[in-house]
């Protein structure tokens, strides 16, 4: 009975979408591969890739600081995570875009000493720079917690056993801790990447020509608001689908690697017992 209800509701939804002339699917098809839309897609994907790469590096450093033995480093990392997880992403984007109101000039030099180079803030912090800074700081706070949770999920006994075998701290981290932590980190990291892609639409408020802002520029002239928003929605779904497929493939590969490692460990134990 439940399946029948779901099928009827799905059929009604599909029929409504494709029979309602106000969706204007001809207009959707017309602008789907429009050059401004394609350029906006490139900007959105580029921002996502650059931001995720920077966030992975900075997030790893913040996570290691948070887990370190230094009370000062741990406190600084915890404060960073608290601040940038608390402030909404849109507020951060607007703040960095208007940084010149707070600091008209930016300088490089010795702290409390002479300045060697001075820049005009408006020339340095443009829409793209402000977007990358805001998105990266926001994502770093979340990714740091994801990485920390993954590292903490690895039992201490694994590291102790590796240390007893004579492995160096670097070898323990890259050969023992990190491979096991990745199984915990990858699934939420994929979700975070998808969330980041969708969050790039917020940069439209600082006039950066991403996918959403590109379609906004088009429908501001031809007044075809709904069809152009449908174009943006479909492209977001396509890109999200590709990311999801890549995430699933990576998870399966990590799963196979784990199973192979477990099989090898089992064979070693059986050999030891037989001896």
UniProtKB/TrEMBL annotation:
UniProt key word Acetylation: no
Gene Ontology CC annotations of this record: ATP-binding cassette (ABC) transporter complex
Biological process (GO), any one: amino acid transport
Membrane-spanning intervals of the chain: 43-64, 76-97, 117-138, 199-219, 225-246
A molecular function (GO) term: transmembrane transporter activity
Record domain ABC transmembrane type-1: where: 41-247
Highest taxon listed in the record's lineage: Bacteria
Keyword tags: Amino-acid transport, Cell membrane, Membrane, Transmembrane, Transmembrane helix, Transport
The UniProt record lists the keyword Membrane: yes
Subcellular location: Cell membrane
Cited InterPro entries: AA_ABC_transptr_permease_3TM (IPR010065), ArtM/GltK/GlnP/TcyL/YhdX-like (IPR043429), MetI-like (IPR000515), MetI-like_sf (IPR035906)
Family classification: Belongs to the binding-protein-dependent transport system permease family.
Protein name stated in the entry: ABC transmembrane type-1 domain-containing protein
């Amino acid at each position: 009975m439940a399946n029948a209800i779901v099928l009827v509701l799905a059929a009604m939804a599909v029929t409504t979408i494709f029979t309602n002339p106000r969706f204007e699917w001809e207009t959707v098809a017309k602008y789907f591969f429009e050059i401004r839309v394609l350029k906006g897609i490139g900007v959105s994907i580029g921002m996502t890739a650059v931001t995720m790469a920077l966030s992975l590096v900075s997030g790893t450093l913040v996570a290691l600081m948070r887990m370190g033995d230094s009370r000062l480093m741990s406190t600084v990392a915890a404060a960073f995570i608290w601040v940038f997880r608390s402030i909404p992403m849109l507020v951060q984007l607007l703040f960095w875009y208007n940084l010149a109101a707070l600091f008209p000039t930016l300088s490089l030099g010795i702290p409390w000493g002479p300045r060697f180079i001075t820049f005009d803030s408006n020339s340095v912090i443009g829409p793209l720079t402000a977007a990358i800074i805001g998105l990266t700081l926001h994502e770093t706070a979340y990714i740091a917690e994801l990485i920390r949770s993954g590292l903490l999920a690895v039992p201490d006994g694994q590291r102790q056993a590796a240390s007893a075998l004579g492995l160096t701290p670097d070898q323990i981290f890259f050969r023992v801790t990190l491979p096991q932590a990745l199984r915990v980190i990858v699934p939420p990291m994929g979700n975070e990447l998808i969330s980041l892609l969708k969050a790039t639409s917020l940069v439209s408020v600082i006039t950066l020509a991403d996918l959403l802002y590109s379609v906004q520029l088009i429908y501001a002239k031809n007044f075809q608001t709904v069809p152009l928003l449908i174009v943006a929605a479909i492209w977001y779904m396509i890109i999200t689908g590709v990311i999801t497929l890549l995430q699933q493939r990576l998870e399966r590969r990590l799963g196979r690697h784990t199973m192979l490692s477990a099989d090898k460990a089992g064979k070693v134990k059986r050999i030891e017992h037989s001896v």
